[in-house]
Amino acid sequence: MTGAPPGASQSTESAARPSPGGHTPVMLREVLAALSPRDGAIYVDGTFGAGGYAEAILDAADCRVWGIDRDRAAVTQGQAMARRYGERLTVIQGRFGVMDRLLGEREVTAVDGIALDIGVSSMQLEDAERGFSFRADGPLDMRMTPEGEDAGPSAAEVVNDLPEAELAEVISRYGEERRARQVARAIVAARRERPIERTAHLAEIVRKAVRRGAKGGAKGRHRGIDPATRTFQALRIYVNDELGELDRGLRAAERLLAPGGRLAVVSFHSLEDRAVKSFLRERASAGARGSRHRPETPTPERRDPTFRPLTRGACRPGRTECEANPRARSARMRAAERTAAPAWDTPRTGGAPAQRGAPAQGNAR
Ligand SMILES: C[S@@+](CC[C@H](N)C(=O)[O-])C[C@H]1O[C@@H](n2cnc3c(N)ncnc32)[C@H](O)[C@@H]1O
Questions:
Q1: Which residue range forms the structural domain that includes residue 228?
Q2: Which atom of ligand 1 is nearest to the CA of 19?
Q3: Ligand 1 pocket, mutate which of 23, 35, 45, 48 (most atoms under 8 A from CB)
């Protein structure tokens, strides 16, 4: 079902203006309507990228924005924007899965709004050296954080080291590729010849495997998209633990948002949207359940709802935005408002909701 946050009708079209970094923000108008920025408030853009959301929030009200991105290149590029906005914008490198800790270290313990725009930016996709794209040859990397303690294995390590069955599972689960087993088999056969270290090499192996599998059956499923698309998407999600991060990010947002604070999440993959949907649905319902942190507790604890939905179902981009920016086509946005109930993830004793000096107010809710 399509829903819309207050202030954004179903027919609302996002203003698809490219950010200075070259990335066109997706569903910008819907995200702004959901957050409803107001003077004096504090917002987090947890996926800063080219700063499209941050810039729009800063221009909408005399507020303060903390931009977070795990990619050092995005943060470096964001410093120029930060200089333009002075003390109103700070861009920091890190993962939104630990945003409450990142902000806590900077003495910010509660915020009025959080935006998350899950996935990769155009800058990441278009830089062949990052290895995200099957369109240009480059080292098979795909890590959003290729350096430091957050750097996990690269896509090359994954395709060269993972057992065939696990590789097939990754490609099937995160890429929703019906020919995952054939693709995994082809990868394993190819890596016996020589390691797969370049995007062009992997793309060729995958294309052949998918086309071979497509002969005679299920024609047209891959028509219109490059047959390597799903496998590359799967590897990117796996390499960056994107679903794990999303889960941690939603829980961190629950801890960090002040009562009345708002969360807007844009996702591009059905698994991501499902994760957001089920988190918000669970948190919007009162529940009696055992504490994850104290599973030995004999009497289940009662949990009060921590979120109130602002969208009925997922909000989708309008036709004009999809025409102007085809990347927006699979986007879905869900938004919710934080209640005053303690976060479910924190033990009762320390679970009081985040409080700011001034309560959230003044929004057209
Ligand atoms: C789709 S882009 C965001 C674009 C941004 N909304 C704009 O308008 O410019 C996603 C960005 O989030 C970053 N990112 C992805 N996962 C992240 C995470 N777990 N923590 C922090 N940043 C993340 C990526 O590095 C990328 O720069």
A1: 144-239
A2: 9
A3: 48
